Amino acid sequence: MKQSLVLLMVALLCGAVLGTAVAQEGGTLTVFAAASLTDAFEEIAVDFEAANPGVEILFNFGGSSTLAAQLSEGAPGDVFASANVRQMQVVRDAGVIEAAPRTFVRNQLVLITPADNPAGITSLRDLASPGIRLVLAAPEVPVRAYTDVMLARAASLPTYGQIFRSAVLDNLVSEEDNVRQVFLKVALGEADAGIVYQSDVTPEAAEQVIAIRVARALNSLATYPIAPISDSASPELAQAFVDYVLSSGGQNTLARWGFVRVD
Amino acid sequence: MRGRLFIILIAAVGLLFLGVPVLVIGVRGVSASDTMSGVAEALTLSVVTTAITALLTILFGTPLAYILARWNFRFKRILSLVVELPIVLPPAVAGLGLLATFGRRGLFGPLLATFGISLPFTTAAVVLAQTFVSAPFYIRAAQVGFQGVSREIEDAGRVDGAGSLALFFRVTLPLARRALAAGLVLSWARALGEFGATILFAGSLQGRTQTMPLLIYNILERDLNAALSAGFLLIVLAVGALLLAQILRRPADEPDTI
Q1: Is B253 part of the contact surface with chain A (CB cutoff 8 Å)?
Q2: Which of B2, B105, B203 shows the shortest C-beta gap to A173?
Q3: Are residues A119 and A205 in the same domain?
Q4: Taking phi first (over 0 means left), then psi (-120 to 50 degrees means alpha), and beta for anything else, what does residue A221 get?
Q5: Which residues of A touch B208 (CB under 8 A)?
Q6: Which domains are present in chain B?
Q7: Domain that residue A74 falls in
Q8: Which is the most buried residue in B89, B134, B249, B252, by most CB within 10 A?
Q9: Is the ipTM of this structure higher than 0.85?
């Protein structure tokens, strides 16, 4: 008697675990999205869910490189929104995405310092001053690739020179796993400066940091591709989400969060 | 008979769940021969920082363990709660706590700044993070070890005229040394695996703050095979530490068999 009761409990437990793992029907959509998209995509999800009753969107936000690694290893997802073309290509090379990715938004870089700006930074040039504690994203993270392009452009100008780039990198104290971590370290005041996307300086985050624009000639424009994942359990819904992000409604939301629209 | 089979069956599920992920990393890690340029630097940093952590743990943890084992006083329960709390604290919370205490804007930040010291993003921050999360393992084991030393032996020493310090170093410490060593090995293994508090408080920079676990997390995105082989290296070290701790925990008169 006791034994069959235990057996029943174990069976129920296993059922519950499996049940949550395959609860696909009812329209759950898992979106893997670059950390910089967090706020905008959460708002887009609310609008999308309102337009599609019964649909629930779950997010996995992270550095695009982390997401690409997870997807390549077979993590179950329906849509991938990357912060650069390279990490999208990683997932395509792994055979996880077959559809052609579409560019859905652009973003630009901005230099940030803590609100009290302890190191007195006013321009990109100040990043080369000795003793500045600079935090950037790790080399695999898209924002770092764009940052490196920016530094290379500056270094090629006679007013900055090659020494600028090495002086900046000498000030590097940490390479963070994603762009939100870079923002956090600066907002906490632990770092003197960091380079993030314009869209990371959201209205509510704006008072924690000072954002300094980078000259347009130096700035590199980030391109974000999106695509449905091939073995999605609900391919129509995945495509519908991609379409919504590209629609004027989705673009309006993205623009409100500081992104550059593509439509 | 059926009941026995039933227990074995459920236990087997538990064993497989715990064992298979480690086994898979073992198999894939051995076959993946990719090594990344950063591994040597990260391993060196891990060895150096965990060694300093172990020294700090012995220095400041041993008296604490002795007090908890031998003295009776008010609020002793609260004290031992404080000492054990980091064991169950989520690493991210530990990292935040360290930032809020030793960060530039933290409790001691301004004071440290007057001496020209800034801890975050330094190797010292790595050591602090490791010590914070790992020392409790040593202190707890050392406390049990000291409690295992019979008071009668200490009393005999006292009758023979030994002072408190002499008694501790000549009698109590030698008798508890195996328990202390076992605790130290476990806390060292925990320090070696430290990740969450380190990445928050010390950041991640090759050669300065990027220890093995941080490197694995970082190269995972570039090269999964390299991450697997680095992970395998940590598993070997962890298994070694566990075996050593098991041997040390055995009473001295028992043969040391695995």
Answers
A1: no
A2: B203
A3: yes
A4: beta
A5: 173
A6: 32-249 (1.10.3720.10)
A7: 27-106+224-261
A8: B134
A9: no
